Fold each of these.
Amino acid sequence: MNIPAIQIGSITASVPIIQGGMGVRVSLSSLAAAVAEEGAIGTISSIGLGDKEASTTDYEKVSREALESEIRKARSMTDGHLAVNFMGVLSNVDDLISASVREGIKIIIYGAGIPAKLPSLVTDESVNLVPIVSSDRVTELILRSWDKRYERIPDALVLEGPLAGGHLGFSEEQLNDLENYSLDVLLPTILECIKPYEDKYGRKIPVIVGGGIYTGADIAHMLKAGASGVQIGTRFVCTEECGVSDGFKQAYLDAKEEDIVIIKSPVGLPGRAIYNEFLKKLERVDKIRFKCPYRCLTACKVSTARYCIADALVNSYFGDMDNGLIFCGQNAYRINEITTVKELIAELLDGIREA
């Protein structure tokens, strides 16, 4: 199989892979730059950056400056294509998006919320806007709204399926009915949904699929099904360039299939994580006491939250696994070694060719 390039607006990446944006601090400059150097699209996650103590007094400023720093570090390491990933439920998401645009980022990936006002925030049409969707209903809502209000369509879409890691755009019932919500089922509905808008604007809306993509054969399968590319997150965690703690990576290496579980996040969404001492503790206690000086997530109900998800994810990043939440994709248990980004992408490309 010939490996197609992926075209997002004016950007062409020779490798049709977007490295997923993984927070908190899982996908930073070192990982994103290494991916971009291999011809794919590297993604910096904007979530949970900045010194923890400094953030208690000026959360928005500290977060912005930390993101700017990561973008500049990545730019110093590569001339390849970089994206930044945002969660719509971040209280300072607009400020972070504006900072990224000022820093020259040309791909904005937006999930965990409907990006209804994104085109009015990013008016520079050289910046490519890429919403994350999980259904044709949400896709149609975004397309219809942007068409009517801004006479614009997304430059690409990321279709994130139910096998993805972290927060998921599916109900618990849907996650228990994977046969009817697989990427193979969802992708044709998205392709049908976007066609009238592609016809109206005279250009393609590339659909990048993510969630459960593990091998080159998986990528080839989705490309043949009509996807323009894939998003992969979990496999990049156990690379040398990923900056998480050794304990975080070891949790992936040690995980068995039955250790991959669905949790209910304080954000109100289901999420996929590795069952560990932290989750066992939550089974024993009603609530882990915490103070919230950040108000980082608009959807987080601090008064009823059982724990601070930001603290739990930062703890894992630094290696405090007993007090840390470890997000992962469904296939995390299949990883059995630490590799490099170069080796991983070469393996995936070989797998596409063989398929």
Amino acid sequence: MSTLDVVAGAVRRDETVEIVLLLAFAGGYIDAYTWIIHGVMANAQTANLIFLWVYATAGNWAKAFHFVPPILAFAVGIVIAAWLRRAAGERARTISTLVEIALLIVIGILHNRLPDMAGTLGISVVAAMHAAMFIKVKGTVCSTVMITGNMRQAIENIFAVVYGDAPLGTLRKSGIFFALCAVFGFGAAAGAYATKIIPNLALGLPVIALLIVLLRYETTPREVTG
């Protein structure tokens, strides 16, 4: 399928708009949670790297090293996801989602007992698997853990429509990418609110979102009509 094809046709079940939007909500939510609870980003390793070097150049090594573990844990999560794709094939996304749910439940239950670092490491692994497994919407590369690339594609597609050389379906694709940005932001807002109001239960919402993803993924035909 062409990467520009967002009109009717066969779409992989992990690339449907509903699943990707749910994942974007969970991605924004988890980042807000880890920032408030642990002072690091779960998904945005660019931000962690910037903070690391800002504090390092200021000579504040204690704060600088605070951002190293989530970066390393994210790398571990990417390796796990790559191994799952090789070992499990089509079942890799199902297994990955189950692992993510299990890790979030464990971290949520042990919230008051786990050291901050342990919670950060677990959530960064979740974020990495999330980022590595679900990377397209209707055949087009996207991100469910940050908005930079999605925003770029949304704006570029609007420009192409205005300029007059856009293929059929470009405007709809732009709307999908704007929706991803909005839902990610909504997830971050919900995560921030829930983490402050019910910190011990806050991870329940992304777990529910991932359970719905799992249910939708398992009950949707391998290819659906988009």
Amino acid sequence: MSDQRMRDLGFTEKYIQEASRYEGLYLGRVIAQYKDLYKVATAETELLAEISGKLRYASEEISDYPAVGDFVLLDREDSQAGNAIIHRILPRKSAFVRKAAGTAHEVQVVAANIDTVFICMSLNRDFNLRRLERYLSIAWDSGALPVIVLTKADIGGDLAAKLAEIRETAAGVDILVTSSLTADGCQAVLPYIRPGQTVAFLGSSGVGKSTLINRLLGEEIMATREIRQDDKGRHATTRRELFLIPAGGAVIDTPGMRELGVESADLGRTFTDIEELAGRCRFQDCRHAQEPGCAVRKAVAEGLISEERLLSYQKLKKEARYEGLNSRQIEKEKITEMFAGFGGVKNARDFAKAKNKKR
């Protein structure tokens, strides 16, 4: 494997030094994930691998298993003697997670060690600021740097007005505009993709992610599918996989955003304006509803923040709290929230009893 290929896979000096601490093990990176196997790229080749019994036993949660993008330590560098064995996963610098199927609390890592995530949103009927807020919250929480990519600019209508709305919603986040339909449609993202770094594209199905990835790779590797007439979209791809970009770097194709929840969304980075105002509210536990002295409600009344943005913030905050809970646990959380003003359910009961005695 060439030095260029190793660099594009992200085999930095940091990971090489980390791997050297474990005698008899070799550095690799997971580039594809199957049901019980992983495809791993090493300094020599690509090979299939499975996790060791010890690693499986030590994994307390599903998120402790390898994921596409993980740097791992293997017992061999080639497949001449059969499948390799993964003995260790090196610390992740970023991770995108979703609720694991069939579980109440556990999360599964769907992609790891991503440096930059391009949040794609088409400028036609897919344009939705509330959805963008959700994407940004998940992206910030992952540890990757978000960049907004607006696709289908050739059919998107009033571009200037939409750009103004996005800048207000995503303060400080770079915004790129591309058609994604022409041969040079990916030129806008190239300056953000450097050798040795890994990127990913997120967004609703059909907005042009696969087309952009195909442009970067120079061939039709990813299946593409246009948005349906009803604009609901479909999954164009289902398997997560890492590809090397000819110009340098790597890209991880991830599943549709509907598979990613807000288990631990970073709302503070996406809603900086609301979080800062919340610190000025009279009450620390202000819910920004009808409480007196609410700085957030005052900002809404003065037109500094839209009612829709506040509702989106409250919705995502509640969703992040309830994500992964079963129906009984969610009901308990709701009851606790209802009686928060009384200091809890028990105090509410005591208050009701005292009130009834006075009658």
Amino acid sequence: MKLFLDTAVYEEIEEAVGWGVIDGVTTNPTLIAKAGHDHEEQVKRICQIIGNVSAEVVSEKRDDMIVEGRRLASWHRNVIVKVPMTPDGLAAGKVLAVEGTRVNVTLCFSVNQALLSAAIGAYIVSPFAGRLDDINEDGMKVVADIVAAYRQQEIKTLVLAASMRNPMHVTQAALAGADIATLPFSVLKQMFNHPLTEAGQKRFLDDYRKTQEAKPAAAPAKR
């Protein structure tokens, strides 16, 4: 399962890219606005250091979304255009997909919606597991059911588990068979943590220092 970072903060993305563990980024205008940047400039900047950068349309009507989606796609070859799970969103996504643009259908909450996304040739569908959990539904079961349905029907659309709230969500997404999980920078950092790793690293370093301290001092060089 590939990991995407769900942020528009360039410094977070740059650090995660340096770790070598992420393959993409998901953004939206809200995240970019919170980061205090211009939408186009920030997406282009992110695309310079990582592939697979989802940029979302904000229009509501089919024709407007098509125009906007084309504009987003023109910014950089790494852009994936996000469209909403609505009739107009899917209609626009169909046109964009036929034109060769990679499309990410966002705000998916059911298998049926995922099937509709696949029908338009979406590159990615994004079920929001955390938001389903928020309303007392099993978000990861929906992710697993979408994966199962796609495999049964030999559908190539990638399943991106979104709205990851904690490291356990990431584990569950992987076990559910998701192709991708997108997560906040804070959750990505938490994935590194385990008390035994920390204790083991401390012990190794302490032992090494002790062996260095126990070494006899080097004899002075003869003149």
